[in-house]
Amino acid sequence: MDRIRIVGGHQLNGSIQISGAKNAALPLMIASLLTDEALTLENLPRLADVSMLVRILGNHGVDYSINGKRPGEAAIAGQTVHLRAERVVDTTAPYDLVSKMRASFWVVAPLLARMGEARVSLPGGCAIGTRPVDLLLMALERLGADIEIENGYVIAKAPHGLKGAEIEFPKVTVGGTHTALMAAVLAHGKTVLINPAREPEVVDLAECLIKMGAKIKGAGTSVIEIDGVAKLGGARHAVLPDRIETGTYAMAVAMTGGDVMLQGARPELLQGALDSLVQAGAKVSATNEGLRIQRNGAGISPVDITTEPFPGFPTDLQAQFMALMTRAGGSSRIRETIFENRFMHVSELSRLGARIRLEGDAAIVDGVDKLNGAQVMATDLRASVSLVIAALAAEGETTVSRVYHLDRGFEHLEHKLGQCGAHIERLSNPG
Ligand code: UD1
Asked: Which residues of the chain have pLDDT under 70?
């Protein structure tokens, strides 16, 4: 298995191109199941999760083709893909595929809405605590689906089609909102989602569905109204820039010091996190090229954060911010309210010399003057990149193992950091 080797202590200077958002790409790709016409997605990131979803969708009958690279186009430029589900050949999503990527469970909604049935494996274990799907199933039931769970599979049926309804989410769920949207667009009549997720990726999905012919109002607010239509068509849509990748590199620059332009980044997608970075001592300026992050001279100040649904501080940047706080000049408190057990990075950060203790749903980080390189292990997608951030500022060498977690969500990570002066390389290990 590949490892990443980092020699810390080098500032980051230069520019980094921000990729299309993984968490928007996945539901957008799944939305291709809603129509027999082609859905063209631009700016799709090259990630292991995207390739895996291509396989899963292929199993249902989605044809996939990819535009060749244009002359002069950088290897790093996002790809344009065409997805066409002219015929859905299989409404079953098997365990061996769904268990590899939780988000693929969301195929249940378009399959049910278009074909009247879906048989989708429950996603199974996940490293960041129990992640139930009860609210996704509640939404489908509200839309008139008959749901049964048999041998680890959700069997959803609506032979006469789904019916519009009012769906109130007791808790904000991104996956629940994607599912409800994709089901309701083809339901008979009107659906109202109360307390849906307001994340930018929900808005991106809604905008794409609207281009496909859906009638949706209010995405990005706390009430979404959907008027069901009989059929959706093809469309062309560009995936929005990845706010988590943006925040991750912004925190890396704040950690090492330096001056980096994050090209294509959109500050309004992560204002909450940027505010915390500014408090920590980084200078953040929006330009028409993207987002410029600088930290020169002054040290890192301690800042308390609490993760919240959008527009609050995102849980997917919690581990990276904690890495930054390990070098702050004082104590900070990092509270995680979205997922239980999302602190697996704490013990690995401690191996690098961080001083962190857990108190219930919070981590108290006492900043230290110096981190030291060590061997560490990636545990999940966002946790693993927090180790990279810490390693960039640690003295000596760090190797991060299990980097397949990073490859799920960060495109060309070592290339992007390396071209800004980080000493980082991938050690390929066959087998
Ligand atoms: C998505 C993101 C993930 C991010 C998370 C929260 C993708 C591919 N993944 O995950 O990166 O960390 O949003 O911003 O977009 N819950 C229930 N019942 C349900 C569904 C969710 O109790 O049926 C709970 C979860 O356990 C969690 C909270 O709701 O505590 C939020 O989860 P949710 O927003 O659904 O996360 P995902 O969509 O899985």
From this structure: 68-77, 124-130, 430-431
Residue 62 Cα to ligand 1 middle (Å): 26
Question: How many angstroms separate the CA atoms of 199 and 174, rounded?
Answer: 7
396 alpha carbon – ligand 1 mean position (Å): 37
* CA dist 281 → 245, 259, 329 (Å): 20, 13, 11
Residue with token string 């299990």: 402
- Of 54, 30, 57, nearest to 113 (Cα)? 30
Q: Please state whether beta strands 190-194 and 166-168 pair in parallel, antiparallel, or not at all (unpaired).
A: parallel
| 330 phi, psi to nearest 5 deg | 150, -170
Sequential DSSP letters for 96-112: HHHTT-GGGGGGHHHHH
Q: Are 146 and 112 in contact (CB under 8 A)?
A: no
Determine phi and psi for 14, rounding to 5 degrees. Answer: 135, -145
The tokens for 10 are 């080098």
Q: How far are the Cα atoms of 158, 194, 291, 373, 427 from residue 170, in angstroms, in the given order? A: 24, 9, 35, 44, 46
* Ligand 1 site, residue 123, Cβ cutoff 6 A: no
Ligand 1 atom nearest residue 136's Cα: 23
pLDDT (tens digit, 9 = 90+) per residue, 376-428?
988 888 888 999 999 999 999 999 998 888 888 899 999 999 999 999 999 98
